[in-house]
Structures are given as structure tokens and as C-alpha cells.
Design a protein that fits this description.
Blueprint lengths: L6 E5 L4 H12 L3 E6 L13 E4 L5 H14 L3 E6 L14 H25 E10 L12 H24 L4 E7 L5 H5 L8 H8 L9 H12 L10 E4 L7
Parallel strand pairs: 1-2, 1-4, 2-3, 4-5, 5-6, 6-7
Helix pairs in contact: 1-7, 2-3, 3-4
Length: 245
């Protein structure tokens, strides 16, 4: 178990990639505290994981989480900034309300998470930010979503640099998924079945299919473990090869 007894926070843990990450980290021996606005999971609950109610856009909620962790654990060893939302909107359809909502959840939520983690983190810990391939290569749809994830990538490098200067051994990396079959993508208007966009992605994938949430969870576990001790400030693209085709 590569994360035995490590204390790790996972935001947005009630479904999709977040729930898969909670399951994987628990299997690897971690003590996981997962947060979300709602406690009811979209799938099978993970025994042993602890729930904490949180809206990642709320500074008060982050403060409450910090106080909870300080009172119940001897620091933390990892954070997965996974909470996020998706909107499938073009440049013509995106409103300022759409843009600000995406930035608040995806970018500001990650910033608040990094700030909190840096105060709680034990030496040698790790932060993993869930970004997106859309933050690297923008397209004509989901424009504001891609902008928010590009901000997450910049944040990742800034935090990694700061930790190097502090000489505390803390690392910060990002995962950039491509298409993943999760409830969030369906809510955003993308269904993995009978969809021309998804069929194109499948055709350009090394597996011939879109990713499973567990594929991203495996990458997160690696980046949180000592197996990736010399990796920081990086955007790990897990898109099946879409960006290189």
C-alpha cells in the first residue's frame, strides 16, 4: 500500500473522478477525508473514508475544514483539488455568469485548497490539482471551462515553485484528463454513447475508448506517493493520446 497511513483530503468526492480517487487512495492505505456539498455518493460508498460538508468556493468552509483537520489529525500528507464543474458552451453562448461560475469553482476553489493545504501540509507531502487537457489545447466549445483549467495549471506551477523555495519537500502537480465517462460530463451535455465528438475521441485513443474515472485515480495515487518524489510543477496529460494525434 503506497499511501499507508497518509492523511489526504479529496474535494468533490461524491462521484465521478473524485469518488474513484477516494476509493483508490483508501485501497492504498490512506486516511481519506472527502468533501462535497452533498454527502450522498453517486455510486458505491467507500468504507472508512470520512465525509466533510464543503462548498469549495466558500472561504468559511475552507476555514472550517482546516480547523477540523487540525483538531483530528497531525497535519495532512496530501490534497486532491478535484471539485469542479463543466459547461459545454461556445464563445457565442458563454455569458459572464457562466464564466464567473466556472472560475469560482474550478480556479478559486483550487487556489483556496492550495492555500489551506500549505498551512496543514507535513514535510514531503503532495498536492494534486485536477486540471484538463482543455486547459492546454483550447477548442471551440467549453471555452470558459478551458480558461478555468488553464488557470489551474498556472496555479500548479506557482505553488510548486513556492514549495521549492521553502525547501519543505512538498510537491504540486496537475492531472489533465481528456474525455472521461463521468456523471459531470453527462450533466454538461456530453454522453459517451452515440455522440459524434466522443466517437472522434475514441478513434484517437490508445484504448479505443474514453477514460474511466479509475484511470485518473491511478495517476492521482502515483502523484501523491513517494514513487513520484522527483516530480513537481508538472501537468500530467492522461488523455489516451488525443493531444498528440
Amino acid at each position: 500500500m503506497i499511501l499507508k497511513d497518509k492523511v489526504i483530503i479529496v474535494t468533490g468526492g461524491r462521484g465521478g473522478i473524485g469518488l474513484a480517487v477516494v476509493r483508490k487512495l483508501t485501497e492504498e492505505g490512506a486516511k481519506v477525508v472527502w468533501t462535497d456539498i452533498e454527502e450522498e455518493v453517486i455510486g458505491e460508498p467507500v468504507p472508512g473514508a470520512t465525509y466533510f460538508k464543503q462548498d469549495v468556493t466558500s472561504e468559511d468552509d475552507w476555514k472550517a475544514l482546516e480547523e477540523f483537520m487540525a483538531a483530528n489529525y497531525d497535519g495532512i500528507d496530501g490534497l486532491v483539488n478535484n471539485a469542479g464543474i463543466y459547461q459545454h458552451l461556445s464563445i457565442f453562448d458563454t455569458t459572464m455568469e457562466n464564466y464567473r461560475q466556472l472560475m469560482r469553482v474550478n480556479a478559486e476553489g483550487a487556489l483556496l485548497g492550495c492555500q489551506t493545504a500549505m498551512r496543514l501540509m507535513n514535510p514531503g507531502g503532495a498536492i494534486v490539482n485536477m486540471a484538463s487537457a482543455a486547459g492546454i489545447k483550447p477548442g471551440p466549445v467549453a471555452i470558459a471551462y478551458g480558461m478555468s483549467k488553464a488557470a489551474v495549471l498556472n496555479l500548479t506551477q506557482a505553488v510548486a515553485t513556492q514549495m521549492i523555495y521553502l525547501k519543505n519537500g512538498v510537491r504540486c502537480n496537475a492531472i489533465c484528463p481528456g474525455a472521461v465517462n463521468t456523471p459531470m460530463t453527462k450533466i454538461g451535455g456530453i454522453d459517451a454513447s452515440d455522440n459524434p465528438l466522443m466517437e472522434m475521441i475514441k478513434a484517437r485513443s490508445v484504448t479505443g475508448d474514453v477514460a474511466k474515472a479509475s484511470d485518473m485515480a491511478n495517476v492521482a495515487a502515483f502523484l501523491l506517493s513517494e514513487q513520484s518524489a522527483y516530480i513537481t510543477g508538472q501537468a500530467i496529460v492522461a488523455d489516451g493520446g488525443y493531444l498528440v494525434c
